[in-house]
Amino acid sequence: MRHTNRTGLSIACGVTAAVLITAGCSGGDTSTDDTSTPAESEPGYLAVADSSLPAGGELDVQTHIDASVATGLDPQLADLAAAWQLMSLVYETLVTVGPEFEIEPALAESWDMPDDTTYVFHLRDDVQFSNGRAMTADDVVGSLERQLELGSVWTGQLGPVESVTAVDEHTVEVALAEPYTPFLAALANVPASILPMREIEDGTLNPETEMLGTGPFVVADHRQDVSWRFERNDDYWKQDEPGVDAVNVQIVPQEAARIAALQDGSASLVTLGNVDSPALLQGASDVSVLTQANTDFYYLMLNSQWEESPFTDPRVRQAVNMAIDRAQIADVALAGLGHPTGVTPAGLPGACEPGDLPSGMADLDAARELLAEAGAENLTFELAIFSTDPAPAVAQVIQQSLEEIGVTVEIEQLEETSWNGKVYGEAPGRFDAALSWFAGYADPGMVTKWWNPDAAGFNLGFMESDAELTGLIDTVNSVPQGPERDAAITDLCAAVEDDAQMVPLVTRPSMVGYRADAVSVSLHADEGYGNPLRLLSEARMVRAE
Amino acid sequence: MTPLMEADDLAVDYQAPGRRVRALDGVDLTVARGETVGIVGESGSGKSTLGSAIGRLLSQNAQLSHGALTIDGESLFDLSAVQMRRVRREKLGFVFQDPIGSLDPTKRVGAQLRLALRGRGASLDVTGQLERVRLADPRRIARAYPHQLSGGMAQRVAIAMAMATEPELLVADEPTAALDSQVRDDVSTMIFALAAEAGTSILWLSHDLAAVGRRCGRVAVMYGGRVVEDGPASEVLARPAHPYTHALANSAPASAAPGERLQPVPGRPPVLTGPSPGCAFADRCGFAIERCRSERPRPVRIKAQSVLCHRAEELAGSAALAVHGVGSAVATTPPVPLGGDRS
Amino acid sequence: MRLFLWWLRRAVSAVATLAGVSILVFLALRAMPGGFAETILGPFASAEQQRELAERYGLDDSAFVQYWRWLQAAIGGDFGTSMISREPVASELGARLPVTGQLAVMAVLTALFIGVPLGVLTALRARPDGGGALGRLVSGLGVSLPEFVLGSIVVFVFSRYALGLSVGGYVPFADDPAGNLTAMILPAAVLSVFAISATARTTRDAVLNVLVEPYVTAAVARGESPAFIIRHHILRNAATPVVVLLSTITAYLLGGAIIVEYLFNLPGIGSYVVQAVGRRDYAVVQAGVLLAATVFIALNVIADLVVGLIDPRLGVTAEGRSM
Amino acid sequence: MSGARPGDVSGDGTSGGGAPATYPSTSEERRGVRMRIAHLTGWLRRLDWLSRCGLFCLLVLVLAALGSMVNLGGDPAEIAGGRLQPPGPDHWLGTDNLGRSLLPRLLEGIGVTLLLSSIAVLVTAVLSTALGIVAGYLGGMVNNLVMRVVELLYAFPSIVLAILVAAVVGPGRPAAMAAIVLVTIPLMTRLVRTASTSVAQRDYVTSAVVSGVRLPRILIRHVLPNVAGTIAVQGTYALSVGILVEGGLSFLGFGVQPPQASLGVLIQEGGVYMVAAPWLIITPGVVLILAILSINVVGDGLRDRLEPRETRSLR
Amino acid sequence: MTNHDGTRDGAHLRAHSGAAGNSSPVLELDEVTVTFSSGLFRREHVHAMRGVSLRVEPGETLGLVGESGSGKTTASMVALGLRRPSSGAVRFEGAPLPRRRRELAGRMQVVLQHPQWSLDPRMWIGHSVAEPLVALGHSQPGDAVRAMLEEVGLEPSFADRYPHELSGGQRQRVAVARALITRPRFIVFDEAVSALDVSVQAQILNLITDLQAEFGFSALFISHDLGAVRYVAHRIAVMRHGEVVETADTETFYTTPVHEYSRQLLEAL
């Protein structure tokens, strides 16, 4: 229960650029043998499943947390990365994200853009839901309209959609009110899943409690917070997939227990949360740990809205922003697996260069000067964090670096739910500062939308919108990929640090361990939606002859 | 012929953290077959320790300091555990003060009596055994749990257990002290009758000089871990030869005639931490002289009694040790016969 | 009649205790910081979702109304629905009870079969002069080993070195008896270290107390052998505190061997309830705690009955001095 | 009447007598102080070697805790070296996953754990004593009421109770303390009550009642001092339970919150690093076990001292 | 230390006879019945006392004998006002016992059975003896305590000892001193000498008779030991199964007991 990775939502707009970021995967790749992953050097991949292995067998997986929370199993409401992981085994989207964040076909085999506000999707004609019914344009239209009507945060992420219409049985047209660059990226995540709308409408399926999708697996059994059993969807449209007959998922909150299971072979694939786990598993035979670079990143909320907070003065916020040593957080708290980042997630194509920002220069004298100007030399503030690893470590490094400019940080560690209540429960929120992380998504513009509290209402309790910032965010999300957008992104990153109500810190890696003697897996080197199980249907079991 | 029981200069200490308490300080005592001996002493005099020593039932912090204790010629403290159990089974019987506590509270009376009789040649007829100790309605009692019995009934059951094997020596440690006075008489009478019938010797430990004197053939008075006076009951009661015996007899309120003032023994009993250098009673004794404090008295013969007192002979000659209210203390019932020619 | 009244009194006091427990839990849950819907759904949920949730679980009603509603349903056997799994709480707990139950039974049986003989032996070897300090040290060590230290070490050792027993990987006994046992032995062993030591200590104390009872002296004086006395007089008389302790340990374990369940990833009740506290899954916490309290009370009653069977003086139907 | 056994020769006191209210003069008060000191040393002498070892260990732990207050061994929060360094000359006990030296962390942890548990147990002792004495002495309805409440707490699974408290109060030291108090109160209240009930039946209490001594004075002058032994013994056991509860809570993340260290926090943090950096769990683990063991051993010693028991063999 | 002073002999025997005629009894139990009932629903009645009437005249010692379970301890509790009778009346100095215990403070005292529990083991002897005076509001009872200790044959220095430093006999002396320090009109001795060794018992019995001659209190002397009762009491009441079966002057009782049970008791002596 400690590892509830509550993930922010964000919108990515269509990404076509293919800048490969490799920095993120260097630290944790401890793969010990390369026999089962022959193609592991393929660009953008940490590992590629050996498709020459025979299909079949059962894969035992352990992960931190179950998919279902209070929102149930409805993928369109899912806002946890953990939920996306498991739901992506059953549900699919029109498009998906490739190894280098390029948008790839999925349920739509291709798409056209007759103009910069119209998208025409050509659906595959061989897709069936696992109940055997063929997917039609009506399902797609219905699904997207359902998401737009839900009014969830993801609705906003889909952008200014004006209409969704079925052109014919296999063609769907989406019209936007204005250009929206991250649109395809936003379609590529689980909340944009295509649901069996006919079954939902006639009441034979309750998406809150049952799952019925087009994906590679169907749910055979689920015990909340204990286990899942997914069995292969025999009618799956991708050839040769899934590569295993069944996936048994156990929900194991305790990191040590997952490590133990991996070591003694009772699990073949586990997700890991501790940044030292790769090192810890170094000596274990047949165990590989891959560190996936994520666009997720930690950020600090500096409450400007609560009158008792010291951060109502922007100079104090800026000073704190400057003084925090991102490199130390990355090296110490994240064992070198994270990277300093601006508001556009480092590692994502088109993101700004964090080293050029005030936070990257670490000018402590300037920070002290700002504090002196604001009359806050002996500042003490409380930092509310939740207890999921490695957030406490990040907080403690922040504490250390702020001590350098004479600022005392008192860390208040709360369990997840209480933290939520404290930070989001009331407006203004009664806290000085808080630490959390956002999923960074697949387009640099998506996550920046959270810096406009008028759009991201959950932030209203501790920040107010800044007109300049909001303008830059809008620009970044509407200007197509190119030098103009790059310039806007650079300005945006600087503006965020100048505003300093929410300051980005470092990216957050995720780790996957697996038994090389049991399974051959595929894994992207980078991930925007916190989903290390994205390519699970490619996995093949290794059989000892 | 060897005496049935003989204690020879028996000394026992209790070891407590940081100190040692001497309970027996050189006891000399013999019990012949068929004899009934009363041991009289106040708390701390060592009589219970002596009783326990006879069955080697002392608690673990008790240590034999010196001396010997023999039953039928067998030196108890040299026996193995197995041999000791045989002696207990074949030759000894015990009755204790707390009648209900002496029975296992979780077992029905009949069941535990049967358990106690098993494998020792006694009759397994529970009802018969209970009848023998004159319990009315033995069947009902056999079905009862100990806590449902009165003290007198429980003590009879305990006696039945102890006497079932017709032991050679019955050690009775204040067996009637916890009983109501009416019942006391019946129980004592019964014990003596059963013993006489079986030829069992009795060692009766009590703090009540007069009561013991009525029942037993011989009385031994203990003080400070030694037997200070030992002789025929009637003699000891009527003509105590030791100043302590005398004081004890005079201090019992029952012995005082109406209007007569009691003669208390001044001071309080000693707690010995090692061998007493002299007479342990010296501090409370009206007749004590310097020698009494520095030299351990040796037994002297005063008429029928054996006495541990330096001045016994002079005092015997004077009237200093006359017992007042003698009439009331002398036995009104004759002592139980001594068992004929067996000794 | 007497028996009936005894049961009646026990029942009344049990109901009172359970009512108290349920009110306390209810109040505690409502006193937790953070609003309902916000904290349960997280920051990203829409106002619509929050409204719907509050409506579905009646969270906007006053605490009194909520409790009353819960109580009425509970009396009818309906303990509510988990907000997370949307399943009836009763069936969820029912599914987890066997795990915790098996753990408790294994640990308590171990304690019984190892702790009791150990306690008897050490009592018989006790010496007044502070001897047996070594035994005291060892048994003291047993009750001083926290589960989270011992458990961590066991998890490490057994996952690092293939020693034949698995860490985690629970399967129901009915599905795979061997697999079930290999998964349960370690957690049960970790739990039983405390249980064994506590049992041994209690047994030792009880036996020492019985050893100085006059009826034991009387049995020794009759020339009975130590084995005979232990079998016929000591075990039964020393059993009372041991029975009470074992029932307490069982209740404690059933109430949640939380740390062990957590370390070994067993789908038991304790870890479930703790998780539910974290997620404000009210119905689960309420029912879980109530279940533990019921077990506690039931075990107390059982212990009383057993004690009564062992020692007629303490029994339900114990008669006064009747003759 | 079973001879002169050490137990029944004199039932001497445990602690010093009641504080003189009216009677002794100043010289007598001085004598009282001397007697108390003599009592204390006498006490120590009569504890067996094991209990004395336990006391010694506790003393060392307390000194270590005091050391942490003057930053002995360094600042516990400072990132002083590389990550996960094994014990060596720079960092005697090695460093943790943030490069903090374990030694000052451990000292801080000992201090926090001991202080927190002690305060909690003190609170328990005060509450239990008040409740137990009143219930035990007065009996009747008061007793029923108190015992009902106690049973209520008893019926709660203790860790769930502690976690509920932590969730209500918010995790941290107050929660840990409140949890320890709630977990330890039932047993202690029960035992104090039992002891008080038996004291209430003592002749000296009856005499005092007959003499017209007021209830508060009877409770304070007669009942309290005579159940002090029970309180002391149960207090030591409660302390060991307190340390366990603190450790368990912190281990589960509901207790003391990092960066502050407690033994439970250190073990929780170290648990993950068992393979790569075993010193991170072994050292605090051993210290924790040692602390609990010492307290238990001292408690056993106290109890044996207060209730000396005869031992018997069956041979 | 002991009072071997023969001159007081016999003085007490005459003490009450003169006073009895014209003053009301110090304590009077009139048809007192005490019923124990237990259980929440079940009312099981056990009669501990059944219609017991007793009188203690000024300066008199009433001896109350009986076996265990005869109800004499309950009688003592009733006399002390520690237990309210189910029916019947208790009058102290002519008036019903007050509801508030404190109104009796100092006028009634008790000496109980167990030497090891008669004194608070955690309290100095001086404090124990002073306690009844303190309860009456005296602030400097030190001299009175020392005087009283001498009165019972103990050295004043005993005031700063603890009970465990004293023998059983000495503790009972202290208990007597404590009872007498307020010069009460009435003292209950409940098995006050039963637990003492014979050789010490006599010391306390003499002390009680001597002090009664000196202070003139009335006493209820309860014991199962007929010998002790006979020695100190002026009149004797015999209880059996909760009823008083015979009341008589000591001398009369000693020579011509009327009730069969009394005869049995005397025979067993």
UniProtKB/TrEMBL annotation, chain A:
One of its GO terms (molecular function) is peptide transmembrane transporter activity. One of its GO terms (biological process) is peptide transport. PROSITE patterns: PROKAR_LIPOPROTEIN (PS51257). GO terms for cellular component: ATP-binding cassette (ABC) transporter complex; periplasmic space. Residues 102-454 form the Solute-binding protein family domain. InterPro entries: Peptide/Ni-bd, SBP_5, SBP_5_dom. This is ABC transporter substrate-binding protein. It comes from Phytoactinopolyspora halotolerans. The lineage of its organism: Bacteria, Bacillati, Actinomycetota, Actinomycetes, Jiangellales.
UniProtKB/TrEMBL annotation, chain B:
One of its GO terms (biological process) is peptide transport. Keywords: ATP-binding, Cell inner membrane, Cell membrane, Membrane, Nucleotide-binding, Translocase, Transport. One of its GO terms (cellular component) is plasma membrane. Pfam families: ABC_tran, oligo_HPY. InterPro entries: AAA+_ATPase (IPR003593), ABC_Ni/Peptide_Import (IPR050388), ABC_transporter-like_ATP-bd (IPR003439), ABC_transporter-like_CS (IPR017871), Oligopep_ABC_C (IPR013563), P-loop_NTPase (IPR027417). CDD domains: ABC_NikE_OppD_transporters. This is ABC transporter ATP-binding protein.
Automatic annotation (TrEMBL), chain C:
It comes from the Bacteria. GO terms for cellular component: plasma membrane. Pfam families: BPD_transp_1, BPD_transp_1_N. The chain crosses the membrane at residues 103-124, 136-158, 178-196, 242-264, 284-307. Residues 97-303 form the ABC transmembrane type-1 domain. Its main location: membrane. The keyword Lipid metabolism does not apply. InterPro entries: BPD_transp_1_N, MetI-like, MetI-like_sf. Keywords: Cell membrane, Membrane, Transmembrane, Transmembrane helix, Transport. The keyword Mitochondrion does not apply. It is found in: Cell membrane. It is a multi-pass membrane protein. GO terms for molecular function: dipeptide transmembrane transporter activity. Belongs to the binding-protein-dependent transport system permease family. This is ABC transporter permease. It comes from Phytoactinopolyspora halotolerans. The lineage of its organism: Bacteria, Bacillati, Actinomycetota, Actinomycetes, Jiangellales.
Automatic annotation (TrEMBL), chain E:
GO terms for molecular function: ATP binding; ATP hydrolysis activity. SUPFAM superfamilies: P-loop containing nucleoside triphosphate hydrolases. SMART domains: AAA. Residues 27-266 form the ABC transporter domain. InterPro entries: AAA+_ATPase, ABC_transp_ATP-bind, ABC_transporter-like_ATP-bd, ABC_transporter-like_CS, P-loop_NTPase. Residues 1-12 have a biased composition (Basic and acidic residues). GO terms for biological process: transmembrane transport. CDD domains: ABC_NikE_OppD_transporters (cd03257). Coiled coil: none annotated. It holds the Pfam family ABC_tran. Keywords: ATP-binding, Nucleotide-binding, Transport. Residues 1-23 are annotated as: Disordered. Belongs to the ABC transporter superfamily. This is ABC transporter ATP-binding protein.
